[in-house]
Design brief:
- The structure is a single chain.
- Helices cover about 25% and strands about 20% of the residues.
- It is of the alpha/beta class.
- β7 and β8 (about 165) form a beta hairpin.
- It is globular.
- The structure holds zinc ion (ZN).
- Zinc ion (ZN) binds near residues 71, 72, 75, 175 and 210.
C-alpha cells in the first residue's frame, strides 16, 4: 500500500500545479454569470492558462464589449481597473465581459522580464495588500510573460503566423501571439480562446489595458486599429476634459500579433489598447515601485484606465449603432483620492 502513496501524492501535486491561479475578486450586483476562458477553448480547462470571464448582462440588449486586464500581469493599473468594473459596475444596456487576468499563467510568477529580455528563473509573484470595508485583500503583481514552467523551452526565434519574427522569449508574450492557435503553445491557446470569445459572443469592441515605462514613447497612449481611429480621436479629446492627456496612435501594418491589430483586422470588433505610465517598468529598475510612487500614483493610473474605457463606451453607439450603458462606477476623483475604497 505504502508504495502507492508517493506516486499518488506526486499525481495530486501535478494536478494542483496544473490548475489556474485563483484571485480575490468580490463580484458585485452587476455580475450576472461567471464563465471560464476554457468555455471557449476546452483544452485550456485545468491548465494554468484558464481564467475567469465575468459576464455583466444588462436587461436591455445592446453592444457586447470585452475589457481585458492582465495581458501583462505586472501592468497592474489595468488589472485593478478590470476588478473595479466587476465589483462596482452595473449594466443597464448591452453586455460587458471582463477578464482581469487575460494571461493567468503570467500572474503566477515574477521573473522581472522587460521589453528586451526575459528572465526564466521562477520567483513567486509579489502582492499589493490593502484594506477594504470587507477586510484585507491582496492583488497579485505577476510578470509580463507566461510562466516558463508552464511553457518550456523558448524557441530561438518566435515566428508569428504572419511570418513576422520575434526573439524566442516573445513566444510567451500574449500580446505578440494573437490570434493564437487551437493546438499551439499555452500562450497561443489563451489567445485563441480570447478570439473564440470575441467571435462567439459577437463582441463589438475590445479594450486591452496595458502600462508602459514612464519614459516610454507609449505611455499615456491610446492605440487604435485603423478602422476605429476616428472613434479613438473623439475619445481622446473628451478625456482632455478630465485632465487625461493621451496621445493617439494607429496599429502598424508591420508589427503583428498585437491585440489592437489582430482583433481589429480579424474580427468585427473595434480594437483599442490603452497605456498608462508604470514606474516599475522603467529600464534598470531593481525595486519595482508600482503602487506608491508619488509622481505616477497607482490611484491616478487606475482612474485613467477606468475613464478611458468609459469614454470609449460613450462613443460606441455613434460608431456601431449599439449602445452599452454602464452605471455605478466611482467618479474620476473618487478613484484618484481613495482608490482602495472603490473595491468591495
Ligand atoms: Zn503591456
Amino acid at each position: 500500500m505504502r508504495k502507492f502513496i508517493l506516486p499518488l501524492l506526486l499525481f495530486v501535486a501535478a494536478l494542483c500545479i496544473a490548475d489556474p491561479l485563483f484571485h480575490d475578486v468580490r463580484p458585485g450586483y452587476g455580475v450576472t454569470s461567471i464563465k471560464w476562458l476554457s468555455d471557449y477553448i476546452p483544452s485550456l480547462k485545468r491548465t494554468p492558462g484558464d481564467t475567469r470571464v465575468y459576464v455583466m448582462k444588462g436587461e436591455k440588449p445592446g453592444a457586447n464589449v470585452l475589457l481585458l486586464g492582465g495581458t501583462h500581469t505586472n501592468e497592474i493599473a489595468g488589472v485593478m481597473a478590470a476588478i473595479m468594473f466587476v465589483e462596482r459596475a452595473t449594466i443597464t444596456q448591452g453586455t460587458l465581459y471582463v477578464i482581469p487576468w487575460a494571461n493567468n499563467s503570467a500572474a503566477s510568477w515574477q521573473g522581472g522580464s522587460n521589453y528586451e529580455s526575459s528572465e526564466t528563473e521562477t520567483s513567486p509573484p509579489q502582492f499589493i495588500t490593502f484594506e477594504t470595508r470587507s477586510g484585507p485583500r491582496n492583488v497579485v503583481v505577476g510578470d509580463r510573460r507566461t510562466n516558463p514552467s508552464h511553457q518550456i523551452t523558448d524557441p530561438a526565434t518566435y515566428v508569428h503566423i504572419s511570418g513576422v519574427e520575434f526573439p524566442g522569449f516573445e513566444a510567451r508574450n500574449l500580446n505578440r501571439v494573437h490570434p493564437g492557435k487551437p493546438d499551439g503553445t499555452l500562450t497561443e491557446k489563451i489567445s485563441y480562446g480570447l478570439f473564440q470569445l470575441v467571435k462567439t459572443e459577437g463582441i463589438d469592441m475590445v479594450l486591452d489595458m496595458h502600462e508602459a515605462g514612464t519614459k516610454s514613447r507609449l505611455s499615456n497612449t491610446l492605440v487604435c486599429n485603423p478602422k476605429n481611429i476616428d472613434m479613438g480621436a473623439m475619445a481622446v479629446l473628451d478625456m482632455e476634459a478630465l485632465g487625461i492627456n493621451f496621445k493617439l496612435e494607429q496599429s502598424s501594418d508591420e508589427f503583428r500579433g498585437l491585440s489592437h491589430k489582430e482583433f481589429g483586422d480579424l474580427t468585427d470588433a473595434l480594437a483599442f489598447l490603452s497605456e498608462t505610465p508604470n514606474p516599475a517598468q522603467d529600464r534598470g529598475k531593481t525595486d519595482p515601485d508600482t503602487a506608491d510612487n508619488p509622481e505616477f500614483r497607482l490611484d491616478r493610473r487606475v482612474a485613467v484606465q477606468v475613464y478611458t474605457f468609459l469614454t470609449l463606451c460613450n462613443y460606441l453607439e455613434m460608431f456601431t449603432n449599439k449602445a452599452i450603458v454602464i452605471e455605478n462606477m466611482p467618479d474620476f476623483d473618487e478613484i484618484q483620492n481613495d482608490l482602495f475604497r472603490c473595491y468591495n
